[in-house]
Design brief:
Helices cover 35% and strands 21% of the residues. By secondary structure, the chain is α+β, with helices and mostly antiparallel strands. The protein has 3 domains: 60 residues, no CATH class; 114 residues, D-amino Acid Aminotransferase, Chain A, domain 1; 66 residues, ATP-grasp fold, A domain (Dna Ligase, domain 1). The strands form 3 sheets. A 5-stranded antiparallel β-sheet has the order 11-10-9-12-13. β6 and β7 form a beta hairpin.
Length: 284
C-alpha cells in the first residue's frame, strides 16, 4: 500500500495532517504502507513519525530537520566541504558583541529564519549595522534568536536557483535589474532568466547534484552565487548560499507545471522500488 499525506498526490490511501498533529491512526497507516508521500510543508512531528515507522519516504527531508535554520545549513556545508561564503555564526546579539572583531564592510546579516529576502540585510556602514542589531534585539524579545554574518561578495546582481524535484534539477537565474537595490528574490523585483551563461548554470547544477547525492535531499530550492572576483580570475566557483524548503514556482512555469514535475518525480521514485502509484500521473 502506498500512503500519501500530500493534498495533491493521489495514492492507495490518502490522509491529511494539515492543521493538526499526527495521531495513532496516522501512525498505523504509516506502518501498513510500503511507501509514504509527505507534503512539502511537512512538520517535524509528522516527519519523525514517518521516519521512525515508514520504510520509504518521499521527499527525504533529513537535512531540513537535522540541520535547521540558516545556521544549521552553514554547519552542514562546513561538514561536507560545500563551497560557501565565509561565515560567522551567532546565537544572539550579545554573542556578536562579545566577539569584538572588526567587521569588514560591506557585509550581509541573515536571520536564522525567513524567506524571499525579508530577513537578509546588507550592511554598508556602522549606522546600518546599529539599525539591524536593534531589529535583532527586538526579534530576540519574541523568542527568535540567531543570525549569521558574511562579507558582501559582488555577484553581478544575480543568484542561481537550482530547484530539486526528485532526480530533476531545474536551474534559472534571478537577476536584480536595479543596480542600487540589494536582493534577488522576485518579491524584491528580480526577473527570471533561464538561458544566460549555461556553463555557469551547469557548474551550479553539478554542485547541487553532488549535495543531493551525499545528503539524500529530494525537494528544495538551492541558491548559489558566482563571486565577481572568481569570475574575473577565470574561476567557475559556485558558492552555496542556502537551501529553501518552500520555494516559488514562477521559474518552474507555475504551479501546474510544478505539480506535474512533482507527480513524475514521485512515480519515478516508486518505480525505482518496484512500486506503482494507483492513478499514476493524476492529481486531485
Amino acid at each position: 500500500m502506498i500512503l500519501s499525506f500530500h493534498p495533491i498526490i493521489t495514492a492507495d490511501e490518502n490522509r491529511l495532517c494539515a492543521g493538526r498533529l499526527p495521531d495513532a491512526a496516522d501512525a498505523a497507516a504509516i506502518r501498513r504502507a510500503a511507501a509514504v508521500i509527505l507534503p512539502q510543508g511537512c512538520g517535524p512531528e509528522l516527519y519523525r513519525l514517518a521516519r521512525e515507522n515508514g520504510p520509504h519516504l518521499f521527499p527525504n527531508l533529513d537535512v531540513r530537520f537535522d540541520h535547521p535554520g540558516k545556521r544549521g545549513q552553514i554547519a552542514l556545508f562546513r561538514q561536507l566541504g560545500i563551497p560557501h561564503p565565509p561565515t560567522r555564526l551567532y546565537g544572539s546579539v550579545a554573542a556578536f558583541r562579545q566577539d569584538g572583531d572588526a567587521i569588514p564592510l560591506p557585509a550581509v546579516i541573515k536571520l536564522d529564519w525567513g524567506g524571499e529576502g525579508r530577513t537578509v540585510f546588507k550592511i554598508d556602514d556602522q549606522q546600518g549595522l546599529a539599525k539591524v542589531l536593534a531589529h535583532l534585539r527586538a526579534c530576540e524579545g519574541t523568542g527568535q534568536r540567531g543570525f549569521l554574518l558574511q562579507p558582501y561578495l559582488p555577484h553581478r546582481q544575480r543568484c542561481l536557483r537550482v530547484t530539486v524535484i526528485g532526480h530533476r534539477l531545474v536551474a534559472y537565474w534571478r537577476i536584480q535589474p536595479q543596480p542600487d537595490r540589494f536582493g534577488t528574490s522576485l518579491a524584491q523585483g528580480a526577473r527570471i532568466d533561464g538561458a544566460a551563461d549555461p556553463h555557469l548554470q551547469a557548474a551550479g547544477v553539478a554542485v547541487v547534484r553532488d549535495f543531493c547525492r551525499r545528503t539524500g535531499l529530494q525537494l528544495a530550492g538551492c541558491d548559489l552565487i558566482f563571486a565577481e572576483h572568481n569570475l574575473a580570475a577565470g574561476r567557475v566557483a559556485p558558492l552555496m548560499l542556502e537551501i529553501n524548503y518552500f520555494f516559488g514556482r514562477t521559474g518552474l512555469g507555475g504551479s501546474e507545471a510544478y505539480y506535474q514535475m512533482l507527480a513524475e518525480a514521485v512515480d519515478h521514485w516508486l518505480a525505482e522500488m518496484g512500486l506503482r502509484r494507483r492513478l499514476s500521473g493524476t492529481m486531485n
